[in-house]
Write a structure and sequence with these properties.
Blueprint (H helix, E strand, L loop, with lengths): L27 H8 L6 E6 L8 H14 L3 E6 L5 H10 L6 E5 L6 H7 L2 E4 L9 H7 L4 E4 L4 H4 L6 E4 L4 H13 L4 H8 L4 H16 L3
Parallel strand pairs: 1-2, 1-4, 2-3, 4-5, 5-6
Length: 217
C-alpha cells in the first residue's frame, strides 16, 4: 500500500455480502422433492455461466473418474452460456449422460433450493474475483471444493468450510470430491462461518466506515 502512495488508515476492504433473508438452510429431502431429484444420490452442484473460465470441463472430466469409484454421485450444473453445446458433447463422449446434468439458467431466488438439495458445491474456475456464491453456499451449511485462484482461497481460508485444489486439474478435483464425500462436515460450523459475509454484517461495516469518516480529523 505504501508503495502505491496510499495511507493504510484510509483504506478498508469489504467483501461482497449475501442476502441472509434468502440464503438459509432448509431440509435437503424437501428441496430435492421440489426439484425432482433423487433422495439417495450424492449431488454435486456447480453454478455459473457456461464459459471456459468457469472450468466446467474439468468437473465433467473429474466426474468420469469419480463414477469409476462411486456409482451414487451425480453433478448438476446450473447456468447457460456459449459452451453449452461443447459441454453436452463432452458429457456424451464420456458416457456421463446419467451422471452430469446441465439444467440451464435458474432465477436467483431459486438458487437456495438447488444449494440445499445438494451435498456440496464445486467451483472449478480458472479465474475468479471474490465469489459471493461461496458464502451463499456456506449460509446453507454446505461445503465447497474450489480452485486455488483469485478470491476463492480467501472465501475458503478455513479448512472446515471447504477444500482447495489446483485449477485445470481434473485428477486432483476428482480426488477432492471423493475425499470430501467421505468426510463428516460440520454443517452448523459452516453456517456460522458464513455470517461474517451476511448483508447485516457487511452493512454494519459500511456504516462504521462512514461514521469514522465523519469523525476523521
Amino acid at each position: 500500500l505504501l508503495s502505491l502512495g496510499l495511507d493504510s488508515r484510509k483504506l478498508s476492504i469489504i467483501p461482497n455480502g449475501f442476502d441472509d433473508n434468502l440464503f438459509l438452510s432448509t431440509p435437503q429431502n424437501s428441496a430435492r422433492e421440489k426439484l425432482g431429484l433423487s433422495p439417495t444420490k450424492k449431488i454435486l452442484l456447480s453454478i455459473g455461466t457456461l464459459d471456459g473460465v468457469k472450468g466446467h470441463i474439468y468437473l465433467i472430466e473429474a466426474m468420469q473418474k469419480v463414477s469409476k469409484v462411486r456409482s451414487d454421485v451425480i453433478a448438476v450444473i446450473v447456468g447457460s452460456g456459449p459452451l453449452e453445446s461443447k459441454l453436452r458433447k463432452e458429457i456424451a463422449k464420456l458416457s456421463l449422460d446419467e451422471k452430469v446434468f446441465l439444467v440451464g439458467r435458474e432465477p436467483h431466488n431459486k438458487i437456495p433450493l438447488w444449494i440445499n438439495a445438494s451435498d456440496m458445491f464445486v467451483m472449478p474456475s480458472l479465474n475468479e474475483g471474490f465469489p459471493t456464491v461461496i458464502p451463499e453456499v456456506m449460509a446453507c451449511g454446505k461445503p465447497t471444493i474450489g480452485t486455488n485462484v483469485g478470491g476463492i482461497p480467501d472465501a475458503l481460508s478455513d479448512e472446515n468450510v471447504g477444500t482447495l485444489v489446483n485449477a485445470a486439474d481434473s485428477e486432483a478435483l476428482a480426488q477432492a470430491i471423493l475425499d470430501s464425500l467421505d468426510r463428516k462436515w460440520l454443517h452448523e460450523l459452516i453456517y456460522e462461518s458464513a455470517q461474517k459475509y451476511s448483508m447485516k454484517t457487511i452493512t454494519a461495516q459500511v456504516v462504521k466506515i462512514y461514521r469514522n469518516l465523519l469523525e476523521w480529523d
